[in-house]
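Teaching assistant's notes for section 4

Start the section by putting this record on the projector. Ask students to predict, before seeing the second block, whether Lysine transporter LysE will look compact or extended. Collect guesses on the board.
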Amino acid sequence: MLPLPNLLAFLAAAVVLVIMPGPTVLFVVGRSLALGRRGGLLSVLGNAIGIVPIIVAVSFGVGALITQSLVLFTILKFAGAAYIVFLGIQAIRHRKRTAENMTAGVAPKSTRRMLGEGFVVGITNPKTIAFFVAVLPQFVAPEAGWVPGQMLLLGGIFLVLALLSDGAWALAAGSARDWFARSPKRIERLGATGGVMMIGLGGVLAVTGAKE
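Reveal the predicted structure now:
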């Protein structure tokens, strides 16, 4: 059982880390501007589902092997960055169709597809692996029992907090998009803006954040 002081310390650290806007927030905002609240929230959920295997891998030691391998880390980094750029390009290419669908009340993408896209982004982010490898062990108490179980608990807590925070960003950005929805042209521009944000984010992730 994780000691209460460790749990409280982790909660305090997690809240601070979660509320600080980072790459995930930029991704969520970009998706929400391109696809609306539904698309943003489904992207948040899909991203979170993609992080679950990472938490499990880190808890049982597999994550450390990935962070120690320059080849695996680099492959994951570029794969994730390229996929985000691809989603951004798609948002720009299909901005007119998205605006038409929204005007007609038609969902731009299926639920499964938007969840799947968020999942791929979540599971291919090596920085998430490195983050959990670096942070979770600091709050574990080996004398308290099963260490993987403690890390799973901490990872789950962080994931719930991240879901709440990212969900709020998705709702805010999606609501702003809905406000602009009175004009199809403005929706096209917002869709393009969201796509540009995702392309920029993918580019930044590809050229920065080298393995440390």
